[in-house]
Amino acid sequence: MGNNIRLAAEAYYNNSSNPELKQLAWEFFQSIDTDRDGRVVDSNFFSQLDVNRDGSLDFVEFLTFYYVLKTRNVWCADCRVNLSGLYFTCVECFDGGLDTFDVCAPCYSANRFCHHHGRDQFLDSFVLLLSRRGVSHVKHSNMVS
């Protein structure tokens, strides 16, 4: 069934005479393809949303999916997992107003990422928030040795 639905969706898209609708579909895809690799989320992400484990998303689970896409669009730069909890951010990228560089705790801990700023430039999301609130004892140089 899945392949037939995919073929039908692609056929409707390819044969649409409404360029605005095609553009809207493409823009929506691009809005959730945060790293521009032509892919969006992994299957594990959907299983995390399926709270009642019935193999599908009910309305509230779908609302959660929509909420995450619109507000929590942060993904690990290495393993591509959605970063909904604690994660590490490059402070230099964050402060520079550029796209942030974020990694999950397991990838940060195992040094499974490649980034042009040093490891001492990373803070976890909680400590980064505290540092921005002016908590003076929080400095990334004290966190990483």
TrEMBL record:
Q: Which UniProt keywords apply?
A: Calcium, Metal-binding, Zinc, Zinc-finger
The record's SUPFAM superfamilies line, in alphabetical order, gives: EF-hand, RING/U-box
Q: Which domain of life is it from?
A: Eukaryota
User: What Gene3D superfamilies does the record tag this protein with?
Assistant: 3.30.60.90, EF-hand
List, for all copies, the residue spans of the domain called EF-hand. Answer: 44-72
Q: Which InterPro entries match?
A: EF-hand-dom_pair, EF_Hand_1_Ca_BS, EF_hand_dom, Znf_ZZ_sf
Q: Name one GO molecular function term.
A: calcium ion binding
What is this protein called in UniProt?
A: EF-hand domain-containing protein
Q: Which organism is it from?
A: Ziziphus jujuba var. spinosa
